[in-house]
Design goal:
Layout (H helix, E strand, L loop, with lengths): L1 E4 L2 E8 L3 H9 L1 H4 L10 E7 L6 E7 L5 E12 L3 E8 L6 E11 L2 E9 L9 H16 L2
Antiparallel strand pairs: 1-2, 2-8, 3-4, 4-5, 5-6, 6-7, 7-8
Length: about 140
C-alpha cells in the first residue's frame, strides 16, 4: 500500500530478508553506502551514524549527473530490529525539518517495512514518494545478493 496523505509519504515494502538484516541495512554505514539515494547509478560518498536515541546521522550521496545531496538528522526512537525514527534535514534546505519512521515486522523469512516520511512539505523540489520507492528498489537489490 502506497499513499500520500497531506504532506506525508507512506510506503509499505516487503523484503526477503530478516528484520535483523534490514535493520543493519538502515543502521550500519558500510551497508548504507551500498544503497542510499534514489538514482540507480548514484553513489554514497559519506555515511556516519550514531544509532542511539539522541544520536546523529549524516549521509552524502551523488547522483549520476554529479549533483551531491547531504541529509542529516537526530535519532528519536531506536528499538533494534523493530522501529527507528529520526529527523530529516537537507543541507541545501536549512531550517526545514521532516520526520522519518521505519517499522519492521517479521513475517517468517520476510520482513514488512512500514515507512513514513512526515512533514515533507508541498513546495519541496523533491518527489519524496518516487525517490523513496526508487531507493527501496536499490536496497532490495543489495539485500538479495
Amino acid at each position: 500500500m502506497n499513499a500520500s496523505a497531506n504532506d506525508t509519504v507512506f510506503i509499505e515494502h516487503e523484503f526477503h530478508v530478516s528484520a535483523e538484516e534490514l535493520w543493519d541495512a538502515w543502521t550500519l554505514p558500510q551497508l548504507v553506502k551500498q544503497w542510499f539515494g534514489s538514482d540507480p547509478a548514484g553513489i554514497v560518498l559519506y555515511a556516519a551514524m550514531n544509532v542511539q536515541t539522541g544520536g546523529y546521522f549524516e549521509v552524502t550521496f551523488q547522483d549520476s549527473n554529479g549533483n551531491q545531496h547531504t541529509c542529516s538528522g537526530i535519532y528519536k526512537e531506536v528499538h533494534p530490529h523493530n522501529k527507528l525514527s529520526f529527523t530529516w534535514t537537507w543541507k541545501n534546505e536549512p531550517g526545514i525539518e521532516s520526520f522519518v519512521t521505519i517499522q519492521l515486522q517479521s513475517q517468517g523469512e520476510h520482513t514488512l517495512m512500514k515507512f513514513e516520511h512526515a512533514h515533507v512539505g508541498f513546495a519541496s523540489a523533491h518527489n519524496y514518494e518516487k525517490g523513496w520507492k526508487d531507493t527501496f528498489l536499490k536496497l532490495e537489490k543489495v539485500l538479495d545478493k
